[in-house]
Design brief:
It is a single chain. The protein is an all-alpha fold. The protein contains ten helices and no strands. The chain has helices at 2-9, 28-47, 51-67, 79-85, 91-97, 103-120, 125-144, 153-166, 170-187, 190-204. The chain is globular and about 40 Å long.
Length: 212
């Protein structure tokens, strides 16, 4: 907690530059939020959904959309004018408007939203539709990564895993696996190699499909 507090103070300047962050592109508290969502997802299969916690986490995510946008997503002289000029009404609009948005935090936020929607999807066709949209945006982001240049293989393992367990289309699975293997070859990263084995096994195993 002390280390987290010290890191958090790094982001109190009026003009933060999150791509230069010591925690890979986002404020430290974001990763606590991600961890909480993942634990809630794990627990939901055994104990059901804690709806109050679920709603709070879902409501918290939009603040991270704004704080992890690339610093030059909306260029203006002053911070207040800058926020007014940026229309960040939805995460999807922000990504389309900001071609330079940081891909790493995008993928983590996508992973969080996919897990939340998976929890809500059992009896909710609208949630299932949202999962499809999130998966498509996730795959679009994955395709932008260049494993021979971007060496943060360990960083991408968690969002790749969340995407992987959610993919239904063979072409998407092939694309994600190609990126995983490319990262593994370029970085010799053991976790990425292990991820390729985990997802290969998962895709071959009988499993319940998401609702049509």
């Amino acid at each position: 907690a002390s280390a987290e507090d010290n890191l958090e103070r790094h982001f109190n300047s009026p003009f933060p530059c999150y791509p230069d962050s010591p925690v890979l592109g986002a404020p430290p508290q974001l990763f606590r939020c991600i961890y909480t969502i993942y634990r809630l997802y794990q627990d939901s299969s055994r104990n059901g959904i804690d709806h109050d916690t679920f709603q709070k986490l879902e409501n918290d995510l939009p603040q991270w959309d704004q704080s992890t946008a690339a610093p030059n997503a909306c260029e203006h002289d002053g911070m207040e004018d800058n926020l007014e000029k940026c229309d960040l009404g939805s995460w999807h609009q922000m990504v389309r408007k900001s071609k330079t948005a940081v891909i790493g935090p995008q993928l983590y936020l996508l992973g969080c939203r996919i897990l939340l929607q998976r929890m809500a999807s059992s009896n909710n066709r609208r949630a299932h539709s949202t999962i499809g949209q999130l998966i498509q945006e996730g795959m679009d982001a994955v395709k932008q990564l260049q494993p021979d240049i971007d060496y943060f293989a360990e960083y991408y393992c968690w969002p790749f895993y969340v995407l992987g367990i959610s993919l239904q289309q063979p072409t998407d699975r092939e694309c994600l696996m190609a990126q995983i293997l490319a990262f593994s070859e370029a970085t010799n990263n053991g976790t990425m190699r292990r991820l390729s084995e985990i997802l290969s096994t998962h895709w071959k195993s009988p499993q319940l499909s998401l609702p049509d």
